[in-house]
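Feature request, filed as a ticket because there's no other form

It would be nice if the structure record came with a short human-readable summary line next to the tokens. Right now we just get the raw output. Example of a typical job, pasted below so the devs can see what we mean:
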Amino acid sequence: MAINFKGPWNSEQTAEFLQQARIPLRLACVGTDGFPRVVSLWYRYEQGHFYCVTHRDSKIAAVLQGNNKVGFEVAPNEPPYHGIRGQGLATLLTEGAEETLRQHLQDYLGGSSSSLAQWLLSRAEEELLIRVEAQRVFTWDYRERMANTG
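Raw output as currently delivered:
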């Protein structure tokens, strides 16, 4: 399915930002109680898909099993503000979770030698891969507008 892009960035600029950024993806979904949930997850982006990892017993895994429609955002918290947000469909997979976790550890922690990395790897076989297929992507970029503020 083709992704519907809106905003100042085209698909190539969006992919470049997502592949270079080392900030978490904020993933939003709706629980069975009707209230939204937002979780921050490390991600990898490839060809219109986000790849995240979560423990099989996590709340987000349970919610996604019941409703796979999600919202997402990748944007820094500091000005000047820019980033992407959108909507997509999430799929939970067992295959590829450990490989993705290892890549996340390299990308976000610089390797697997930290105590956090070792703890995450100790339960790697209990991880699930979350694949989010982006359906709609909205970009914004206020860097030029905000260049002379402050």
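Something like this underneath would help us a lot:
Residues 97-109 form the longest helix (13 residues).
Residues 80 and 144 are 8 Å apart (CA to CA).
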